[in-house]
From TrEMBL, chain A:
InterPro entries: DNA_recomb/repair_RecA-like, HR_Repair_Mediator, P-loop_NTPase, Rad51_C, RecA_ATP-bd. Belongs to the RecA family. RAD51 subfamily. Involved in the homologous recombination repair (HRR) pathway of double-stranded DNA breaks arising during DNA replication or induced by DNA-damaging agents. GO terms for biological process: meiotic DNA recombinase assembly; reciprocal meiotic recombination. GO terms for cellular component: Rad51B-Rad51C-Rad51D-XRCC2 complex; Rad51C-XRCC3 complex; replication fork. One of its GO terms (molecular function) is ATP binding. Keywords: ATP-binding, DNA damage, DNA recombination, DNA repair, DNA-binding, Nucleotide-binding, Nucleus. This is DNA repair protein RAD51 homolog 3. Residues 87-276 form the RecA family profile domain.
UniProtKB/TrEMBL annotation, chain B:
It is found in: Nucleus. It holds the Pfam family Rad51. Belongs to the RecA family. RAD51 subfamily. It comes from Coffea arabica. Its main location: nucleus. This is DNA repair protein RAD51 homolog 2-like isoform X2. It comes from the Eukaryota. InterPro entries: AAA+_ATPase, HHH_XRCC3_RAD51B, P-loop_NTPase, Rad51_C, RAD51B, RecA_ATP-bd. Keywords: DNA damage, DNA recombination, DNA-binding, Nucleus. Residues 92-266 form the RecA family profile domain. SMART domains: AAA.
């Protein structure tokens, strides 16, 4: 491993290389005082450099074998990851057709980008997920909390109240429909309880947007039950008045990486809402999601909401684990629902309940 | 007042000085030495770039960036406390009732504070009428359900008619307007600005921002937005010509927590307007424009459509006028029939028609078959709001009632 890849300051790096220390192994058996003399720096600085080098160079010092290299670099085998992927919870969207094509719902542990034309229902879906993540475990939910980062001012509390009340009604209906023989169980939740579990940040510039994403790591470690982070929308402050496109690409790339790290570290779902723009391709103008081609590679999953014929559809444009498909959905007074009849609603809760039971069984094995 | 001042202060989080953040002296000095003074300067660079520039290790940079981020990050609140704050501090939890029962119900109380509400429709449909009525409603005293405040009306097309506004007032709120001097007081609260060039328009906006707090302005109307802007940022154009105005007006609405109503024009759908994504096979899907008998789209383009929070589409179809809630994060897609009368706009039925398909966004521009002008047409003022129709009748008819057939 090369000294040039160490995360130390540029001048220290230059000094190390000019003094002849090219690889990390050359630093393995040297004392701080000796290094300080060689480089012409203080002993404290030399100790710091050696500490960083030992952290990075660890695996090379032991006898090379598959497992120790794997351990040193914090890697996992694919078999372990399979178990993790299967036990990973998903957040329902309250629309059975949409849940079907998503493999059960929005996956926790990944970044999902959702884009569409104005008025198609992006904010609606965001609000629905912020509510659905809070559904108690007994109803097949995650009993988690939500962080809603609003960059455009589209978060309307009255709507959140409506969706929360509809969600409670659904839970009550499920109870009365499927647990008829059991003693009546009261759903002890109020709409305000749902509202109290949504942490709302209002962002007014791209600096604040970067700041809040940086701050989230600390915030989420203090509020461990947050299970979803919604950014509505990721585009707004990066779209206008940005003269330096290269800077924009770098900043967006940095943000995407940080969000992916958050999703993986805390096992939560990160949802980024995006706007649309036009691009010229194949001889005509087409719709495409904003922020450019380099951004389109940044997110793990990409869902496009669009109008098709007489209804709203969601299309899975990009996903490493789910096949590409489209499903219809509707935006109703109660939130995101199926385009079809109401009876599917109870089926949805039943399905979630069965999945929950299955999960419990599996963990007992 | 203090709340608004706090918001103004919060506006400049991005410009917060690093020297005032309480970072360890050593790192603060390094930032200053490299000309990085504000949070914006620091956060616009990636961590590796900062490492190179400041000549410090990754660990130090990460700690510094995370402190800067924590300090520049706006404070959070729960959705519940947001709701309680609005219910406590604002009129009807942040809504201006339009007095159109069905529409108010759909919008959870009325035109929301703090965001842009757009009225879009073909010429002569009633956008200005709606704006006049809203101006009046905002200036009414709170005892009559108004906001008891001043209104700034930016009139870019010289459409403002105070005579018509008083007429609306007299017919809708006779008990107020019959009181001596009330009409004068109400009209005195409405400040009309008429910029004629894009530069004047920009200056207007700046002046409005400065005087918003001092003059208890409770409503801002811009009629219309499209008039002083050329083009609509379509196709390859990256920098939207309206870009600066859009973010400015949006942040104005946000920090002053007042309703902002903007009217928008329509233009014909051109062959270049995209409606499909690359994954949609255009042969399979119905061709959007020809399904509906209209070839109109809202002006100002897609970025503007994203920036507004509520879009109300006004259109006419088969002799009937509709107002549709095309975009609103708190309402299902509904349409109401309306008519224009002496007391402004009124809904014919309070129960809306729910529209689940894309026709909620379509703008139909069929000219009305005919309409009755039964009341006397005495002066050119009344003719003004019918001028956009193809009227083949001489204007200077006095004291006669007649039917105008057009289209």
């Amino acid at each position: 491993m090369e000294v040039s890849s160490l995360p130390i300051s540029a001048s220290h790096r230059a000094k190390l290389i000019s003094a002849g220390y090219i690889s990390i192994s050359s630093l393995s058996s040297i004392s701080p005082a000796h290094l300080a003399r060689d480089l012409g720096i203080s002993e404290n600085e030399a100790t710091g450099i050696l500490k960083v080098a030992s952290q990075r160079g660890g695996p090379e010092r032991t006898i090379p074998s598959h497992h120790s290299i794997v351990d040193g670099l914090r890697a996992q085998t694919a078999w372990d990851m399979l178990h993790e992927e299967e036990s990973c919870r998903r957040i329902t969207t309250s629309c059975a057709d949409l849940d079907d094509i998503l493999g059960g719902g929005i996956s926790c542990k990944e970044v999902t980008e959702i884009g569409g034309v104005p008025g198609i229902g992006k904010t609606q879906l965001g609000i629905q997920l912020a509510i659905n993540v809070q559904i108690p475990l007994e109803y097949g939910g995650l009993a988690g909390k939500a962080v809603y980062i609003d960059t455009e001012g589209s978060f309307m509390v009255e709507r959140v109240q409506q969706v929360a009340e509809a969600c409670i009604k659904d839970m009550q209906e499920y109870d009365s429909f499927l647990r008829k023989d059991l003693p009546a169980r009261q759903v002890n939740l109020q709409a305000n309880d749902f509202l109290a579990n949504i942490y709302y940040f209002r962002i007014c510039s791209y600096t604040e947007q970067i700041a809040v994403i940086n701050y989230l790591e600390k915030f989420i470690s203090e509020h461990k039950d947050i299970k979803v982070v919604i950014v509505d929308s990721i585009t707004f402050h990066f779209r206008q008045d940005f003269d330096d496109m290269a800077l924009r690409t770098r900043l967006l790339g940095g943000m995407a990486l940080k969000l992916m790290k958050l999703a993986k570290k805390f096992t939560l779902a990160v949802i980024l809402l995006n706007q649309v723009t036009t691009k010229y391709s194949g001889g005509s103008f087409q719709l495409t999601l904003a922020l450019g081609d380099s951004w389109s590679h940044a997110c793990t999953n990409r869902i496009i909401l669009y109008w098709n014929g007489n209804g709203r559809y969601a299309h899975i444009d990009k996903s490493p684990s789910i096949r590409s498909a489209s499903a219809p959905y509707a935006v109703t007074g109660r939130g995101i629902r199926n385009l079809a009849s109401n009876c599917k609603r109870v089926k949805l809760i039943l399905r979630a309940r069965l999945a929950h039971d299955e999960h419990i069984c599996r963990s007992l094995i | 007042m203090r709340k608004s001042v706090n918001r103004v202060w919060r506006r400049v989080m991005a410009n917060k000085l690093i020297s005032e953040m309480g970072l360890p002296k050593s790192i603060a000095n390094i930032f200053a030495a490299r000309n990085i003074h504000t949070a914006k300067d620091a956060l616009s660079l990636t961590e590796f770039e900062l490492m190179e520039l400041l000549d410090v290790g990754l660990a130090e940079v990460t700690t510094a960036v995370s402190s800067i981020s924590e300090i520049s990050c706006p404070p959070y609140q729960t959705a519940l406390s947001l709701l309680e704050q609005r219910m406590h501090n604002e009129h009807l939890a942040g809504h201006l009732p339009t007095r159109l029962k069905g529409l108010d119900a759909a919008l959870c109380g009325g035109i929301p504070f703090g965001v842009i509400t757009e009225l879009v429709g073909p010429a002569g449909i009633g956008k200005t009428q709606f704006c006049l009525k809203l101006s009046l409603l905002a200036s009414l005293p709170s005892s009559h359900g108004g906001l008891d405040g001043h209104v700034v009306y930016v009139d870019t097309e010289s459409k403002f008619s105070s005579r018509r506004m008083i007429e609306i007032g007299v017919n809708s709120f006779p008990e107020i307007f019959q009181i001596e001097g009330m009409a004068q007081q109400m009209a005195g609260r409405i400040l009309v600005l008429q910029p004629t060039t894009p530069t004047e328009f920009s200056e207007c906006l700046q002046k409005i921002k400065d005087s918003l707090l001092q003059h208890h302005v409770k409503l801002l109307v811009i009629d219309s937005m499209a008039a002083l802007v050329s083009g609509d940022g379509q196709g390859q154009c990256r920098q939207h010509p309206l870009g600066w105005h859009m973010t400015f007006i949006k942040s104005l609405a946000e920090f002053s927590r007042i309703p902002v109503v903007v009217t928008n024009q329509v233009r014909s759908h051109s062959g270049d307007d995209p409606f499909h994504y690359s994954f949609q096979d255009s042969r399979q899907n119905l061709d959007f424009p020809t399904t509906f008998d209209s070839h109109l789209v809202a002006a100002l383009g897609i970025p503007w459509a994203h920036a507004v929070s509520i879009r109300l589409v006004l259109e006419s179809k088969s002799g009937q006028r509709f107002i549709k809630v095309a975009k609103s994060s708190m309402s299902p897609p509904v349409a109401f029939t309306f008519a224009i009368s002496a007391s402004g706009i009124s809904l014919l039925h309070d129960d809306g028609i729910e529209m689940t398909g894309p026709e909620i966004n379509a703008i139909c521009g069929q000219v009305l078959k005919h309409f009755n002008v039964a009341s006397s047409i005495n002066d050119a003022h009344n003719i003004k709001y019918f001028r956009d129709f193809e009227v083949t009748v001489v204007y200077s008819i006095k004291n006669w009632s007649f039917r105008v057939v057009c289209g």
